[in-house]
Amino acid sequence: EPKSFLYTVNAGAIPAGHWTQDAAVGGGRIVGECCHFIDLVRHLCGSSIVSVQATMLGGSDRVREDKLTVTLAMADGSFGAIHYLANGHRGFPKERLEVFCGGRVLQLDNFRRLTGWGWKHFRRTRLWRQDRGHRQEVRAFLQAVAAGKPSPVPFEEAAEVTRATFAAVEAAQSGNRISLACGDDERKSPLRRCA
Predict the structure, then answer these.
(1) Which residues fall within 8 angstroms of residue 194, CB to CB, at 6 or more apart?
(2) DSSP structural state of residue 188
(3) How many CB atoms lie within 10 A of CB 163?
(4) How far is it, in rounded angstroms, from Cα 96 to Cα 72?
(5) Tens of pLDDT along 16-68?
(6) 18, 73, 119, 179: which could form a disulfide with 184 (CB 3.0–4.6 Å)?
(7) CA–CA separation, 57 and 60 (whole Å)
(8) CB count, 10 Å around CB of 53?
(9) Is 148 buried (19+), middle (13-18) or exposed (0-12) by CB count in 10 A?
(10) Neighbours of 24 (CB within 10 A)
(11) pTM for this one?
């Protein structure tokens, strides 16, 4: 059944003049970092992203792109809400992912502690060190190259996440819901690709 993903990212403040905040140099924080959270939600859901909405925090802040919520609608009816925030306290966890589905919940804190509610034989697990899977990701990619096999992440999925990331920038700036699916009556992103 469809799943609900709630991803809170306590990204930390970066000065407005820093290169990562410059869209022409570092791409801005949505393109430069929030893309990874969009990618993870897409991967865990296992269903295509059909539309993107984004809302930036109001006010007179010079940089607002690093204080926003991105909402992804998926083809299977799931949704993901990514709260990417640079205005939090450093003592709060950097990343918390919660998944609600089928009367059960999983909560992952900082890729170290996983807690479950409603799971028959699982309650919690904890790692001594944070493990985001970078080593395993590189190993899988290198093994695929060495064996002449396709990339572990299909090109179409990587391209879809890229389109969704740029749609998040567009949606945050325009206030529109951006459709990535063909045949949708909502505003369509020029980045969508129809078969």
Answers:
(1) 182
(2) B
(3) 19
(4) 17
(5) 778 877 777 777 888 888 999 999 999 999 999 999 999 988 766 666 778 89
(6) 179
(7) 9
(8) 20
(9) exposed
(10) 7
(11) 0.84
Contact status, residue 114 vs residue 40, Cβ threshold 8 Å: no
Q: What whole-number distance in Å separates Cα of residue 33 and Cα of residue 150? A: 25
Sheet (strand 67-74) strand order: 124-126, 113-117, 104-109, 95-101, 4-10, 79-85, 67-74, 49-56, 178-179
pLDDT digits (tens, 9 = 90+) for 63-110: 677 889 999 999 999 999 999 999 999 999 899 999 999 999 999 998
Instruction: Report d(CA 193, CA 175) in Å as an integer.
Output: 22
Count CB neighbours of 179 within 10 A.
Answer: 19
Strands 4-10 and 79-85: parallel
- Indicate the pairing of strand 4-10 with strand 178-179: unpaired
Share of the chain above pLDDT 90, in %: 48
Neighbours of 35 (CB within 10 A): 19
Residue 66 falls in which region: left (phi positive, over 0), alpha (psi -120 to 50) or beta = alpha
End-to-end CA distance of the chain: 26
Residue 151: pLDDT band (50, 70, 90) is confident
